[in-house]
Amino acid sequence: xxxxxxxxxxxxxxxxxxxxxxxxxxxxxxxxxxxxxxxxxxxxxxxxxxxxxxxxxxxxxxxxxxxxxxxxxxxxxxxxxxxxxxxxxxxxxxxxxxxxxxxxxxxxxxxxxxxxxxxxxxxxxxxxxxxxxxxxxxxxxxxxxxxxxxxxxxxxxxxxxxxxxx
Length: 166
What we know:
Helix content is 8%, strand content 49%. By secondary structure, it is mainly β.
C-alpha cells in the first residue's frame, strides 16, 4: 500500500500573498487545522510544505504555506495533490476505509463468485456507492451494512450481498 493519502487538490492561487485554494478530498475537513506540513509530488520528487494558516471559504480550503509567498509561486502548484502520510491520517472506525485502499479491490458475491473490480466510489450524501466493473458492465453497489458483508484490505477482497435488481 502507498504510504501517502491525498487530502486535497490545489485548484488555483488565491490572492497575492501565496495562498492557494484547495478542493478537499477528505470527509474530515477539520483535519486541515491539525496539519503542520503536507507533501506535494512532482516529477523531480516530493516536496514538504509547512502550513502557515488554514481557513475555509464555501466548500474550499484556503491554505497558506510558509514557503510560498506570492501569487506566481502559488500558481505553480495548480493541479497538484496535497498528500499526507498514513501516520497523519485520521483514525477510522472498524467499518470505515480510505477510498484509496478500496480501489482495484476484487469484489465477490456472498456465495464466493467473482463479481468484478471496484473501480470508483461515488459520494451521494446518504451513503457511498461502489462502482464495480464486471466483464460486460458497471454495477452500482450501495455501501451499506446489509450489502457490504466483509472488506479485507490485506487480501484486497470485498464480499457483497447483491440486492434484487443489481
